[in-house]
Specification:
Blueprint lengths: L4 H11 L11 E2 L3 E3 L7 E6 L9 H16 L3 E6 L6 H12 L4 E4 L5 H10 L4 E5 L8 E6 L1 H15 L4 E6 L4 H17 L4 E6 L6 H13 L4 E4 L5 H8 L4 E3 L11 E7 L2 H13 L2 E3 L1 E4 L6 E5 L3 H4 L2 H16 L9 E2 L5 E3 L7 H4 L9 E2 L1
Parallel strand pairs: 3-4, 3-5, 5-6, 6-7, 7-14, 8-9, 8-10, 9-18, 10-11, 11-12
Antiparallel strand pairs: 1-14, 2-13, 12-15, 16-17
Helix pairs in contact: 2-9, 3-4, 5-6, 5-11, 7-8
């Protein structure tokens, strides 16, 4: 369940410097390139840093590949490599699969580019795609989703269940993807309670149950009456359940506590798989940078057993209305005016945060402290 702590830290320094429906395309912000000629059937490989049944990010990724297979049928076949380390072993695995005829690879975690970019350069007839990757090339792409949308919905749910508007967030590292989900949570919370605040504790890990439990306890002791976690195990919400505090987490729905678990906010990588596989099969172009939101089924929430009891009918109606607008493409999470937590205007009135700005965040919206 490790999400490449060492490599992620390097990316932090560089940068700071249900499940989703079937889709065919996603937004783009970089030049398109020709795809390699597809084999028959197209052989696709999915690289995971954990296991397909981890109950977290990797299981969501695996479900996306299963859905891609269902859509394209006999036109493609796939294999899954689990527990792929962030090391030269990743390159060895890809080289082996290339020798077996695999020509399209998805690495569903950032941190592989140092090891896989040289492989892509050495094999121009194959294509690699990496989640939140730090580099791109003619046959090395990157995909990302607007996770602020999913966490905006989570913020609405959390604020509705909170007794005092104080939301606690347990996060991994301060890099752009986390700023995005933290800010999304706060903006959604303010839609329900304009006085809502969010305090973040970083645990410098994506999987450290002891640190996560300690951070959760600290937030509750400080007065947080709703908790959200963005780590790859159940420790945050299990700890919250023991204190009878409502909680959400970034994973699949699990049994954390029937009276406390509100649900999950997640990113669904299937939008990228389907888009790229479709382009390769059709011999059309694929962008180097795929960017998804809920209008293409790239993010979502699931509703836990405590949602109906902890959130009022009014809040539930607001959540449903927000989700409907997202799916219709009429919702903007970062709609100005937006000020950061130091009082600086970041998004003027009538403007929206661009994809490039979204992907390069290093600031918090008003109401967030860390």
């Amino acid at each position: 369940m490790n999400r490449a702590i060492k490599t992620r830290l390097l990316l932090v320094l560089m940068a700071c410097l249900s499940l989703g429906s079937v889709v065919i395309s996603a937004g783009a912000s970089a030049a398109a390139t020709k795809t390699p000629k597809a084999s028959s059937p197209l052989k696709v490989a999915l690289l995971l840093d954990a296991a397909t049944k981890d109950g977290g990010w990797d299981q969501v990724a695996y479900n996306g590949m299963v859905q891609a297979q269902a859509q394209f049928g006999s036109k493609m076949t796939y294999t899954v490599e689990q527990n792929v380390p962030f090391s030269t072993q990743a390159a060895t695995i890809v080289d082996r699969l290339i020798g077996q005829g695999y020509t399209l690879f998805f690495a569903d975690s950032s941190g592989y580019e140092d090891y896989l970019a040289p492989v892509a350069k050495a094999h121009p007839t194959v294509r690699l795609e990496e989640l939140q990757g730090a580099v791109t090339a003619s046959n090395y792409g990157m995909y990302e989703a607007d996770q602020a949308e999913a966490f905006y919905l989570a913020g609405e749910m959390l604020a509705g269940a909170s007794k005092n508007g104080y939301i606690g967030m347990v996060a991994g590292f301060p890099f752009p993807a986390y700023f995005n989900i933290i800010n999304g949570t706060e903006m959604g919370a303010k839609a329900v309670n304009p006085k809502a605040t969010e305090h973040v504790i970083y645990v410098s890990s994506f999987f450290d149950p002891t640190k996560e439990a300690s951070a959760t306890q600290a937030l509750i002791s400080d007065g947080a009456t709703a908790i959200i976690g963005s780590t790859n195990d159940p420790s945050v919400c299990e700890t919250a359940a023991a204190a009878n505090v409502p909680c959400m987490n970034e994973d699949l729905l699990q049994s954390y506590g029937k009276s406390t678990y509100l649900g999950s906010a997640y990113m669904y990588s299937g939008f990228a798989y389907i888009s790229v596989i479709g382009a390769v099969l059709d011999h059309t172009t694929v962008t180097r940078y795929l960017y998804g939101n809920d209008t293409v089924g790239a993010i979502g929430v699931s509703f836990g057993p405590a949602y109906a009891t902890r959130d009022s009918a009014t809040v539930r109606a607001l959540v449903n209305m927000t989700l409907t607008k997202m799916k219709a493409g009429t919702f903007h999470d970062y709609a100005g005016p937006i000020y950061d937590n130091k009082g600086k205007l970041r998004v003027p009135a009538g403007k929206f945060l661009t994809q490039a700005q979204d992907a390069d965040q290093n600031w918090y919206v008003q109401g967030v402290s860390a």
